[in-house]
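Hey, quick one: can you model this chain's 3D structure?
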Amino acid sequence: MVSTMSLDSMKDQSLPLISIIISVYNQAHFLARAIDSVLQQNHPNTEIIVVNDGSRDPVDGVMNQYIGMENIIYIKQENKGLPAARNVGFSKSQGAYINFLDSDDYFHPHKLTKQLNILTKHPGVSFVYCDIHEIDSTAKRTKHNISDNPGPLSGNIFGTLFRGGYFPPHTALLRRTILEQHGLFHENLGGHADFELWLRLSACGCKAYFLNESLAYYQRSEHSMSHDLRHMHDTLVAAYQTILEGYPALCASELGNIQSDLDELRKINIQLCSEVVKLNENIVQLQSTSPVIKLLALLFGPTGFPGPNKLRRLYRNYRHHK
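Sure thing. Here's the predicted structure for all 322 residues.
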C-alpha cells in the first residue's frame, strides 16, 4: 500500500530535490527522530519516503502525525529485508540526489546542504560521505573517526574498502544517475548490502569525496542487525564473494598490493628485532663497565631505570620511614 502526501508544492523548487529513503522494521520508537532530522535540514527541497518493511510495532501510529505533510510518501509492505526496502523506496523516489537513512539513525541539520555543495562544485564526484557520532543506549555521543581508516578516503577508494574500510549508508549523498547506471542493493546480502554497493560503485570507477565532519548520527542498539554476529559474518563473506566474482582482475591486483604491504611489514619487524638485540647488548656492556649503571641495575633491574610503580613504592617507603 502506498500513501502519498502531495509532492506538487515543494518549499523551494529552484533547488535540487533530494530524496531521503527511510526504511523501518520494528523501530517505531526511533522513527520520528529520523523523520524530524530530515524536516529540520536547511536544504528546503526534500522528499521523505518511509518504507515500513512489515513492522510489528506501531509504525502507523508514528506516521499519523505526518499525515498531510506535502513531501512525505509512506509505503507499507510485507517483510522483505532491509536491502529490498531500500530498493522499493528508491523506485518511488524522484530526487536527483539520494540519501538512505535507517529509522534508528538521524542527520545533523546542515548535512544535506554541505554535501550537496560538494557534489555541485565537483561534477566528477559520484557520492560524498561524512563522519559520524555513535549514540549508545544512554544517548551518549562518541565521535567515530572514519578518517582513521588507512588508505585514500576520497577519489578511488576501492582499495580502502577492500581492506575493510566502511561507512554507514546514511553518511552518503549520492547522485541518482550512478544508482541507475550501476544498480541498487543486492537483496540477499542483508547487513552488508551497502558495503557491497560501495565496493561495486568504486570498482566501476565512481569517485568518492570524504567530508571530514560528523554530520550523521549512528544509533548503537543490542536489537540492531549488526549485533547478529552470524548474519554479519555470512553476509560479509557473501559480499566479498560477489565482488570477487564480478571484478576478479581488480581484486587480484588489490590482493597483490596487500601481499606487498605484508612483506614490507615483515622486513620492518625483522629490522626492529635486530635493533632490540643490539640495544640489549649495549645495556649489558654498560652494566659491566659503568659503576653507576651497575648500581641502577642492582636497584631497579636490568634496564637500569625505575618504572612508575617502583618509584611510588620507594616514595611510600621513604615517607613511612621519615
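One thing worth noting: The beta strands are 2-4, 18-24, 46-53, 72-77, 97-102, 106-107, 127-135, 141-144, 172-175, 208-219.
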